[in-house]
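A quick aside before the break. I want you to see a complete sequence-to-structure record at least once, exactly as it would be stored in a machine-readable document. Don't worry about memorizing anything.
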Amino acid sequence: MRETLRKYLLSFWLLGCAILLMGCPSNNTPNSTADNSGSSNASGATDPVAFRVIAGSENKTLQPLLDRFAQEHNLNIKVDYAGSVDIMLLLQSGAADYDAVWPANSLWITLGDQQKLVKNEQSILWSPVVLGVKKSVAQKLGWVGKKDVRVQDILAAAESSKLRFMMTSATQSNSGASAYLGFLYAFSGKPDVLTSQSLADPQLRGKIKRLLGTVDRSSGSSGWLKDLFLQKYDTYDAMFNYESVAIEANQALAAQGKEPLYAVYPSDGLAIADSPFGYVDHKDAAKEKIFQQMQTYLLSAPIQQEIQKQGRRVGPVGEELKTADAAVFNPEWGINVNRFLNQIRYPKADVIREALDLYQSAFRKPSYTVYCLDFSGSMEGEREKGLKEAMQMILDQTRAKQSLLQAAPGDHTTVLIFSSGIIKEMSVDGSDPQKLNQLWAEIDAMHPEGGTDIYTPIMRGLDLMKQKGDALTGYFPAIILLTDGESNTGASFSDLQAHLQTLGLKQDVPVFAIQFGESDEGQLKQLSESMSGRVFDGKADLTKAFREVKGYN
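That is the input. The structure line, written in tokens, reads:
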């Protein structure tokens, strides 16, 4: 009797367990309230949950903080770093592949988030855009210890050849855009906010063109501008850049035993990057929960202190930093943490866009650009198609305007088609859309053939620069090279070096190379670095690479 009862109870217990198991959801069942634990793999281990972030390149130094958070929460956080305009364009297209956005400035979310996808954005850190000036130059100008250095003072120093400065492109980099909006604000008389009426003022237009005309070197990246300044330290006196980047530059200069930069905060046109971290809402509750945890982590006191140690300001914007490390925020470098920072107020999105369009098409220093385009036999097919599409994006002014790359009336554009030698040379002065479209039509009519000689077209480009003589100082000159192979015929790198010495150019002419196909990376790096340029990777997205490189002149 007892044995029968025991078997009956055991059977009843097993049946109950089976019913419970049938009612439990599997790991693969969609659940909007799921935690961050991920799914189990065949071995029973839990796979990390994927979470993708698109971030400004200036946030790369904060990557270890995200890696630590990912490890603690079993996440696979993939961060793609991009320029400000790329982030803007990505948001305009819906940012389907991203869960969060972290640009340098909220203005790029304002311009790009036309579908209203970004929510719960909060600033993680702050960085004023300052003019970092060699301290001896700042002393000569009377700026050391001076409370109010105005944008007009900077213009006067530059026009009198007492200041040689660099800044990034206002239409490709946030530090350049912020500095530029600060200039506009100052030249319009510090209004409550900039308007379209402000931008139409002839006096403002005259002054902004004069100031931008004194910029000695441009760049599409704040970090690269710093690296170039350190590399060409004897050539330039100053750069507009983030306070944090000026601190990084000074740390490098101190290690080299060189004179540091002195930070000047324009009193009537100070812009501050607010570094907002926002959720891209694709209606995934689990991803939103991860975002909220990550944002809370970044804003927590210990992490904020770590961020501050990197030379970034934390806490309410403009307030003094009571716990700032004087070795980082060094007062001898002009870094002032005890002063309230009175920043400009950013205008509405349509006014920002109008201001950026005016910068690109009317106010900036003109570009003198020589494109050296490889039409060797190996370019036939998809590579030829990609090259032609990329050039159409630049030359078709309707398309160029979408990426803030439109031409200006003072620009000069030359295209050198080459293979074993120069096949064709074509030029356009100015920004006439019809002439630029005709230039593209001539490129479109070309067909690949022959070998590869990259040095002869570059030497021809330098010859064209030499012909401009002293007038070249009125341009941002650049040679942009695209090739899919190794230079295997014609001139050599030694020939180029000898030719450059013979020319005796008074101004740097950077060579920017776009790597494509099986091009020799070492060869391109040697060429670009010797000509104060850089190499761009066009293998994955040639059009994007062209857009990036064009932002450097």
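Two observations worth writing down. The CA atoms of residues 111 and 353 lie 7 Å apart. The radius of gyration is 27 Å. We'll return to this after the break.
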